[in-house]
Amino acid sequence: MGDWKYGYPNVECAAHMPAPGYAVCKHVLDGATADFVEAASLTSLGQILCGPCSRDPSPGNVEELLLVCSHCAMAKGWLTSKDLS
Ligand SMILES: [Zn+2]
Ligand SMILES: [Zn+2]
Question: How far does the centroid of ligand 1 lie from the alpha carbon of residue 80, in Å?
Answer without folding.
Answer: 19
